[in-house]
Fold each of these.
Amino acid sequence: MARTRPLKVALLGCGVVGSQVARLMTTHAGDLAARIGAPVELAGIAVRRPGKVRDEVPPGLVTTDAAGLVARGDIDVVLELIGGIEPARTLINSAFEHGASVVTANKALLAQDGPALYAAAEKHAADLYFEASVAGAIPLLRPLRESLAGDKVNRVLGIVNGTTNFILDRMESTGASYGEALAEASALGYAEADPTADVEGFDAAAKAAILAGIAFHTRVGLDDVHREGITEITAADVASARQMGCTVKLLAICERAEDGRSVTARVHPAMIPDRHPLAGVREAYNAVFVEAEAAGRLMFYGPGAGGVPTASAVLGDLVAACRNKLGGGVGPGESAYARLPVSPMGEVVTRYHISLDVADKPGVLAQCAMVFADHGVSIDTVRQTGKDGEAKLVVVTHRASDAALGATVESLRRLDTVHGVASTMRVEGE
Amino acid sequence: MARTRPLKVALLGCGVVGSQVARLMTTHAGDLAARIGAPVELAGIAVRRPGKVRDEVPPGLVTTDAAGLVARGDIDVVLELIGGIEPARTLINSAFEHGASVVTANKALLAQDGPALYAAAEKHAADLYFEASVAGAIPLLRPLRESLAGDKVNRVLGIVNGTTNFILDRMESTGASYGEALAEASALGYAEADPTADVEGFDAAAKAAILAGIAFHTRVGLDDVHREGITEITAADVASARQMGCTVKLLAICERAEDGRSVTARVHPAMIPDRHPLAGVREAYNAVFVEAEAAGRLMFYGPGAGGVPTASAVLGDLVAACRNKLGGGVGPGESAYARLPVSPMGEVVTRYHISLDVADKPGVLAQCAMVFADHGVSIDTVRQTGKDGEAKLVVVTHRASDAALGATVESLRRLDTVHGVASTMRVEGE
């Protein structure tokens, strides 16, 4: 692998992550060269607004012509850190056509167009790496794709959005409302000005699609992922979880059905028991819990976002892509041979925690219990509390299909004695 | 990568791990073929005593001639699961000479002879993979070698021995003595008949050498690793840790010095704060906490031993070695370019928890404090308890060199008013 010509890298996007990648490529140049087996050189940095480029960035390399940079013909690896669908997609395809491998952190594009990108990479015998797209700095996709390549993953439970984990953690530790915790997250820079993508679960859903695809060797698109956010979570929900010895987390859950013949992917808030390793994941940290047939229960934990941690993941992929360029090999491509059908949310089997406001009179519990029985949903525990003519009924079910649980809740709502369904939440990780 | 001839695999050793590898290669044959890009075939299984072979193993493949199997000339990958130094070393070298790549779980051999094995692999353009040698099923070495290849690891703190973690966890959760907890571990199959390798830290020390070598791109041998076991840990130590909000764990610690110019590797029991992610690692689970300059604080958690989990790691490496065979590439070899010196234990900087039995009379605390000051060791907290003329002094120091801390303890022992040093333990993870 002796070679004197440096490998040339084009950096697209120079924001929070890109500027750190540029900085680390300079400060760690010697280590990168030793680990790759050849020097690596930043050949150009494409930005939208050159006036906004940060101090870390060598100014002579900056251009606004991303398309021209990618098409120069001498670029070995393109780092796509622009995000969003276009122009990122066109630039990545151009990179492959011009003989470059691609490292990207673009979860939205991968979740939407992963198969086409994989196909383009394969056609041009190039690499497509995207460790940074899920759970930031945590080495997760490489372990799933490579270390567990001889195993069978049955379930992935992930805290993959730092903003929502911070908000839920504050609600739990301080008793704050959702609004108060969101305000704190915004003030500390953990939530964006428009927090919709995070708090409504869109960000986590894109990551769930990527994770499910890799875990199950099956194409899973964004539309296959059931999605619920955390905006409806109340301080009372969090307190009720505490009473059960549980913590509320926004989880991305990818599951193989018990018969092994289909999979599901979903994002929603859920209660998990305090003894589960994910329950201890605080603040804006991410963690992904993997259950594999042979390996058993694994967890990967670390910072899920931030410019510097995410840059670490990008640079790890850069080293791999450069090593492959030098060695003549190519990293793992798409693995979708299993072609398992993705079942809708209704077929997910899980447990439910349901909190009802009911009339405080005899027979209400029996009436409610009958509704559960009618839908074939078995009750695990019931807790009844009441004062001043109003009572609360908290029911935790055994495992049942989400469709049956949903229908049960609908029927409960129609009972005269049920004044309201205060909350419903799934219980996971048991 | 279209190819019809299957890749041929020789399995050396068919004990707890090997028999599971053989079983999974059969039951997962279709998945392995899809993930590799060609079928993979078990060509032979070398055992010492063919009469003892388990049910899972196809009997026609069994041989006692390991050397002949490896030298057949048509073997693509050799899985070395015999353990120990010889004949494993000779067989691995023969495998390389005959054109095969090698997957091994042999931590003892790697810690002793890693550089020679790497050199042999490189000479023959073969792969040497050994994910299963450290922390069983947990994907750890691949993330360290590849995902963090663009980052700088500053510290690795690992619970890498399940037997000792089980014993310490029982001591903490039940108040048992070391002997009682060891007996329970033996009864449950977590400790071997002769537990020396585990409880005296030899097993963890071999893993520490491997981890430090990979983390710091520097050769670290077994002799470079300071080693203390857990046999002296008392119920009182564990209770004292609890009082400080700490847990006692046997840790493998690999550290870069603050000036970045040297590294250390050590295995010893230590107190870590309950809020540290490693504190929650219970029973026989393993976990490795990694602090990297850019990625930040990462943790990898899972089963550290057992036939089935370890087989998962072996098969992951098998897939990688087979993919490289087909694609013409080769995985990462030895990376020891940094050549950092490994400093002795005396230069390690850490904190100490020291428990002294002292005379219950005025001036003792002042006298002891003077000894610490004389050695330049600054005291963080002191707790004094006493009854019936005997008193206890528990001192927690600030960070100081291990040499200074050791000298302090020696001087304390020589004081007339100090009747004994009940225990000394390092405090880590803060």
Note: Chain B touches chain A through 57 residues (CB under 8 Å).
Amino acid sequence: SVQGQAGWGSEQPGLVEDFNSFVTRTNTCGELRSAHVGQKVTLYGWVQYQRQGLFLVLRDFQGLTQIIIPQDEAHSHVKELLSNAPVESVVRVTGIVSSRPLGQENPKMPTGDIEVKAETAEILNSCKKLPFEIKDFIKKSEALRMQYRYLDLRSFRLQSNLRLRSQMVMRMREYLCNLHGFVDVETPTLFKRTPGGAKEFLVPSREAGKFYSLPQSPQQFKQLLMVGGLDRYFQVARCYRDEGSRPDRQPEFTQIDIEMSFVDRAGIQRLIEGLLQHSWPEERALIMTPFPSMTYEEALAEYGTDKPDTRFGMKIMDIGDVLRGSDIHFVQNALSYPHGSIKAICIPQGVVSDEIMQIICRPDGRLKSLLTKFLGEKEQSELIRALNMQEDDVVLLAAGEHKQCSALGALRLFSASLLEAAGLALRDPTAFHFLWVVDFPLFLPKAKNPTELESAHHPFTAPHPSDASLLYSDPTKVRSQHYDLVLNGNEVGGGSIRIHSAEQQRFVLEKVLKEDSEVLSHLIEALEFGAPPHGGIALGLDRLISLIVDAPSIRDVIAFPKSFRGRDLMGSAPDYVTPEELEPYHIQVSWPLEEKEAKKN
Amino acid sequence: SVQGQAGWGSEQPGLVEDFNSFVTRTNTCGELRSAHVGQKVTLYGWVQYQRQGLFLVLRDFQGLTQIIIPQDEAHSHVKELLSNAPVESVVRVTGIVSSRPLGQENPKMPTGDIEVKAETAEILNSCKKLPFEIKDFIKKSEALRMQYRYLDLRSFRLQSNLRLRSQMVMRMREYLCNLHGFVDVETPTLFKRTPGGAKEFLVPSREAGKFYSLPQSPQQFKQLLMVGGLDRYFQVARCYRDEGSRPDRQPEFTQIDIEMSFVDRAGIQRLIEGLLQHSWPEERALIMTPFPSMTYEEALAEYGTDKPDTRFGMKIMDIGDVLRGSDIHFVQNALSYPHGSIKAICIPQGVVSDEIMQIICRPDGRLKSLLTKFLGEKEQSELIRALNMQEDDVVLLAAGEHKQCSALGALRLFSASLLEAAGLALRDPTAFHFLWVVDFPLFLPKAKNPTELESAHHPFTAPHPSDASLLYSDPTKVRSQHYDLVLNGNEVGGGSIRIHSAEQQRFVLEKVLKEDSEVLSHLIEALEFGAPPHGGIALGLDRLISLIVDAPSIRDVIAFPKSFRGRDLMGSAPDYVTPEELEPYHIQVSWPLEEKEAKKN
């Protein structure tokens, strides 16, 4: 049952939500205790199971209560009714709370000391034969569970996830709104395309050829709110991103969207640390503040990624100096390039997983590897010392031209999974390691055309104060005031201090990014009318909650998620519409050729 | 300034929001008092005005503070900087709080006892010449104000409206979530067309010919949540309705969306009364609960509308019996029909507005009207008695065949406006009269084809328990369990107890409404798998807040509203997109013929 929530969700000590207000039930199915014995109660719930006409277990969102079916003649209709109620039917029961007979108490059940002797009952909605047993539901295919989402929602798991999400968001609101003077402002979701908005859904309007667009975030609006003097804004904002088929992404998702005037990076960081600490579920491991911080460069060098999982070590080490004297061809080759380097990770006890291995540290302190014949005694012992290798450790080497080593970063995570699959306790599954990653570059070379630059975050991000003058001379060297929040190796938030000078914003858009700034002219013009310095952040709520409840997918913390392909499998959306329905929007479908042909025949 | 909010927005006595956390300002511009004299403070704000290099007034969301510009040589740069800062520039000022010289205090200003002697200052963003003076902004055209919305947002009016909205919604959340165990669940906005969903925006998907639709409300989802055992759901839900050009409607709007299991109409009514009382702004007139209630039939008979403004009398009276003996042709004609009747409203002091009049009560108690020659002494005095006419009152008559009298209903409101324009105090502008309207018919004849029926509310509304059997014999006679909440003559909410039987739901859709139930098959099937009895309501948040703050339009309580034509005048949405951008969605624009021709030439 969902006992976790009792006493949760409110600042006021002693205040407990009243789940029985406005209805005729006297108690929920998770509420009754020995103290209630003798009371006449009315319960509503679903039939969890029923046994031989003797008793049944009634379930609601709060828990389970055992109902004793009367056996005497006077209550024969109640007996008949309850004995024949199919599993998952909705039932009202009125009866008297009694102690369970001695020895029949169930200490695993919060209501296990009592039972309710039914006096009257009513079947409110009978359940037809289920396509599967509810308790085995989690083992069924996800497609089936999504088709019958309303049945899956009855599971303890989803009830608990959705309630935790609701309560955590409520605490965040209390923190922002009641404690720190933030204003909850709703911004439009029908807007227009932004530069590079290829992932924005379009919404045809009644004006021929004109389309709204569903924004990927309220970025422009929150900045305009700061120009409008709102001072502190937040919103639990619905955002949209059309990425086609990507696993664990949803076409619509939710972010905790925040913006403040007159703030610097440290201010936003303290705000978010306070926010998470304030709203953190009581039954989870405590989180400590301030969160540690790491530069983008350190993250790439030591973890091979900009979102390091800091729950375990196995950092990437530079062993170029150790191997510089060796005869190994690829090592020498790599070191001959300007940014050439030799990096390594040492996998403690890596030998337990024999799928990947390069250099194994033997019990006698000697190394086992295809490479050892190229390494002298001295190099071997230096390697062991440099990497602090222990018996049965495995070292992975990477040689190459880049400062970053994303391959080793990925191997590091893969190795961790392998070790854990082999039974080694590497990462504490109950621990939450938050990390700030800061000092990102402002621009990165475009993947497709490295001579052109694109924003590492977005074009509104301000340069690092120390690098501001470099913007005009060597933009590739400018660090930004962008920061990411990482939790257990997942990016759960990101933000920046924004540009608040029209001239600088125009320079970034036109000269550095070579974008048409016309489409953003309203925002740039706003920066000329008294724009305060401002900055903000957005937290990915779906991802954050799924990490907190340790769910494998964000679909486990969304009431009605879409499939990989962006479909709603319960209501079958998206769906075909008639040409007449398209007419007011001045659009028609361009059928792919094969479908066109098929229709002709 | 925005003093109204101090001490607001939290349950905890003594708790005040900290507006200065996470930033380097020490105080807001509305905060300093005599108690602060001698303190060194740092303020950030906008230059409200500046006078002759002597002082300036700095403004933020909280208020105004007078800054004294230093005149001594040592601070000449500060003087130069502040004397030359254009109005609406953003400025940081550090200085010492001082008492104003005796006699120069400004009791109208909360900070009017003090001033800040500037020591250092910085222009953070200079404001270019404004296209208009901000203080006169409200007099400008609405189109201009919407184009420069970020300037309009700096007005006291919009700051105050948006903050009140945020805080009222926060209090609603506390009531629902913390006090009554409701779960805040987000539901999808990318769904599929519902039957009769002609007003739903479409969103093309990447599957050729398939479209999502932006739902008008989370109706289906909230019912499915009840089937899923969520028990108590709420959401501050973004909804969409494409109505083309309609004044004071927005293509996207917000509703407080609520659903409960095991509840009846009275339960929902008590919940909403408690919700509004709990969240009602302290500085507005108190509201009393329970709210009065009226049947749909009474409302139409007495007010000629289903959303009566009950702040004043002037009810519609049936005077058929008084005039039955008269010789007036149209009266006799009307009374000869089956539902024929003579209705009247008596406008107190109606003579002050001479635009409409029919029967005037003279000081001597005699009636002045074109009709008096047809009325005997007895009929005249009976009329005066029946309508309780006083000197200078005016009576409007309507004769016709219908039970409802929407013409008199409209005249009643129109007369009230005329009387108030003429200076008569008819409606207390600070009073809030809530009213429940209940017992609506379940079905109404379609306007276009009166032999067919449509749902008065929506097809999921349950019949009134007393009329349930009539559903199968004479559906036109069935009253529903639909209820509307009316505030000062405006519909601010509506809801119903829902059908929770699949058989009944199928009958209503297929047999009564003759709709294709296939598109709702997932919902109907859900009702066969243990659906609890349930009901709910939705409050129109934009309308509710605009009535509370007495704003002429819902655009005054929305940060970035759209124009009449559904356009965003600041960012110019909707906008043209390229054919390439449409390609992934398999659609093309069907240009109207004239535009096609124009393009050719």
Note: Chain B touches chain A through 138 residues (CB under 8 Å).
